[in-house]
Design brief:
- The protein is α+β, with helices and mostly antiparallel strands.
- It is built from 10 helices and 16 strands.
- Strands 8-5-4-9-10-7-6-3-2-1-13-12-16-11-15-14 form a 16-stranded mixed sheet, sandwiched between helices.
- Helix 1 (12-20) packs across helix 2.
- The longest helix is centred in the N-terminal third of the chain and has 16 residues, at 34-49.
């Protein structure tokens, strides 16, 4: 069975293997360095256990485990507050009207404004999965389990949730937006800047990026076409999040101009359609396939199960689901349709 649970120190090597196997064209907020990743797992463990250090931000890291082998095949995360105590930078796309009454000319010009207006909103992040699982039920489980965790721990998260989607990158590894803008100020390639962003914070963006508005007309044609467009390999993630209720707004990723999706937390599909139930046993394995989660904090578990029967506040699922969740008869669980 597939199981989503909190990341543990013993998952380090599997996660490093997943992060390193995404290929040069895929980026992630998941560190690819052992020391940085180990720190992130430890920080996540403290967050799940409610043992955060004073002023330490809450960051949750989940893994997708194949229970038959114990091997980890994917990772996803939630930052309770985007920026984790520091500004969370994006570009905000807006427009200016340039007009001359004498010449009878009026022109709308798109402009990118550096912004950190999304700072402190809840952020979905670090979604990484082995290639062969993209677009499968396990893929959906790994993404949506985070929303069930939010639904069951609602007081830890804000009323607004955002997620950055990787932007356009060409077959030869070029990132049109970065090459047209960021490279001129950072004097480094996209991959290096992306690694700094994952290992450190994005404070260096404020130190190196121009604070002035950027006129879109000054960018290359390829960069303009890339604005707000997802990377071809993140299309399935993009569509799944749209189905969840996220929508693109006026914000773009500051490195590659990928879309930043936004939603009101309480309107997310998995939050709205999930219901607390009391666990009971079913004696057959048939029924509608659902997501089911149980346990609080570090005991949180989420898996897929056939739902045999749900009457009132009770739900009947196979015993193997009990074992996967580490739950027993009469325990509280949360379910939502796949």
């Amino acid at each position: 069975m597939w199981l989503v649970r909190p990341a543990q120190p013993g998952d380090l090597n599997d996660i490093l293997d997943i992060a390193g196997g995404q290929g040069p064209r895929m980026s992630s907020t998941l560190p690819k360095k052992e020391e940085a990743l180990s720190h992130k797992i430890d920080q996540s463990a403290r967050s799940f256990a409610g043992r955060n250090k004073p002023a330490e931000p809450r960051r949750f890291l989940f893994v997708l485990e194949d229970t038959s082998t114990g091997k980890v095949h994917g990772v996803s995360g939630i930052d309770a507050r985007a920026g984790n105590g520091q500004p969370f930078y994006n570009y905000r796309m807006d427009a200016l009207i340039h007009a001359s009454h004498e010449l009878g000319i009026s022109r709308r010009v798109e402009v990118l404004y550096p912004s950190h207006a999304l700072t402190d909103h809840t952020l979905l992040c670090s979604f990484t999965i082995r290639r062969e699982l993209r677009g499968t039920d396990a893929f959906e489980l790994l993404s949506r389990a985070r929303m069930l965790f939010i639904a069951g721990h609602r007081d830890l998260f804000t009323d607004h949730t955002v997620v950055e989607i990787q932007g356009v990158q060409t077959e030869d590894g070029a990132v049109p937006f970065w090459d047209s803008l960021g490279r001129h100020f950072f004097n480094m390639d996209f991959e290096t800047a992306d690694q700094y962003s994952g290992l450190l914070s994005k404070t260096f963006i404020a130190e190196l990026m121009p604070p002035n508005p950027i006129y879109v007309t000054l960018l290359s044609n390829a960069a303009r076409e890339a604005l707000g467009q997802p990377h071809e390999q993140t299309r399935a993630t993009f569509e799944l999040l749209q189905h969840e209720g996220f929508r693109g707004g006026c914000y773009l990723d500051i490195f590659d101009a990928g879309p930043v999706l936004e939603a009101r937390t309480d309107t997310l599909k998995s939050v709205v359609t999930s219901h607390p139930k009391t666990l009971h046993a079913a004696h057959t394995d048939d029924g509608e396939l659902c997501l089911i989660s149980g346990g609080n904090g570090e005991q949180f578990r989420c898996t897929l199960t056939p739902l045999h029967e749900a009457l009132g506040d009770e739900v009947k699922v196979p015993l193997k689901t009990w074992q996967c969740l580490g739950r027993g008869s009469g325990d509280d669980v949360r379910i939502t349709p796949l």
